[in-house]
Amino acid sequence: MKAEISASIRSAELYWDAAADSYDKDFSGTSVGIVRRDAVWLDLQRVFHSGQRILELSCGTGIDAMFLAHRGVRILAFDLSPRMIAIAQARAARELLPNPPEFRVLATEHLSTLEREGPFDGAFANFAGLNCVDDLSQVADTLGRLLKPKSRLLLCMMGRFVPLEILWFLARRNPRKAFQRLRESRTSYASTTGLVIHRPTVRQITRQMKPALRLVGWKGIGIVVPPSYAEHVARKFPHVIQHLAKVDRRIGPIPLFKNMADCVLLEFERVNYTRGI
């Protein structure tokens, strides 16, 4: 089992190292990526405050960590990709903040190595970093030891039912891709990168977070805003994208619509519990 986990981590590391140099251009810097990240930032700044010490899992190129650092939040951020961390560290060096984020190379599966550095005032993981992790229950158990009671955990993960994606790929005569998320809760790209993507439902995520973390609420992100692979279309209609982003924010918490989102943003609370019960 340990050998399988190590192989999985190595495959993910190689994939994200290769993607690192173009990640900001391909997603974070796109009009679609910007409006989606803005939607997550609304909750990050609502939940986390100046002076708090926060843990970021799968931090990528450090954009979210820098956003919070500019607001006085102290950040320890990590990612399994050395190249992602190098880009994040360079970004922090350019900003010249008095308290820049601390960036480290670390796989989420090895989160327990940080236990002596806790407790933290909260934690978060943005844009599907945890969809690459095989066992969320292990992560939750470790977070139960790392986080202070009553602190918050924000997770942005992939949705399962995305009508906009279905319509997009059906219009391009690709039914396999259109229904892939519904059909496959786990997708392996072993023939190309070795990366494995897991797509648990909100109910499954909530169950794996117990007993250390209790779901407080969740919403959808990317219900009517198109996915990043539609950026070539989105660039032609910037005002439409901004309007759709406003609609997205309004309907994101509504039960009917939040189940149709490209991503789901879940908010958990660290609860007092006794291990093994």
Plain-language structure description:
- The model has no long low-confidence stretch (mean pLDDT 91).
- It contains twelve helices and nine strands.
- The chain has a seven-stranded mixed β-sheet with strand order 3-2-1-4-5-9-8, with helices on both faces.
- α1 (2-28) packs across α4, α2 (31-47) runs parallel beside α11 and α5 crosses α9.
- Helix content is 44%, strand content 20%.
- The chain has one domain (2-159, 194-270): Vaccinia Virus protein VP39 (Rossmann fold), CATH 3.40.50.
- The protein is globular.
- With 277 residues, the chain is α/β, with parallel strands linked by helices.
- It has helices spanning 2-28, 31-47, 63-69, 82-95, 136-146, 163-171, 175-178, 180-183, 202-209, 231-234, 238-251, 255-258; strands at residues 53-56, 74-79, 102-105, 120-125, 147-158, 186-188, 196-198, 213-221, 263-270.
Largest sheet: 7 strands, mixed
Uncertain regions spanning at least 5 consecutive residues: none
Q: Treating each run of at least 4 consecutive H or I residues as one helix, how many helices? A: 12
CATH class: Alpha Beta
- Going by CATH, the homologous superfamily would be Vaccinia Virus protein VP39
Number of strands: 9
CATH topology: Rossmann fold
Query: What is the name of the CATH architecture?
Result: 3-Layer(aba) Sandwich
**Mean model confidence by pLDDT:** 91
Sketch the topology as an H/E string, one letter per element.
Answer: HHEHEHEEHEHHHEEHEHHHE
- The rounded Rg comes to 18 Å
Looking at the structure, what is the overall shape? globular
Strand content: 15-25%
Spatial gap, N to C terminus = 25 Å
Major β-sheet strand ordering: 3-2-1-4-5-9-8
What proportion of the residues is helical, as a percent range?
40-55%
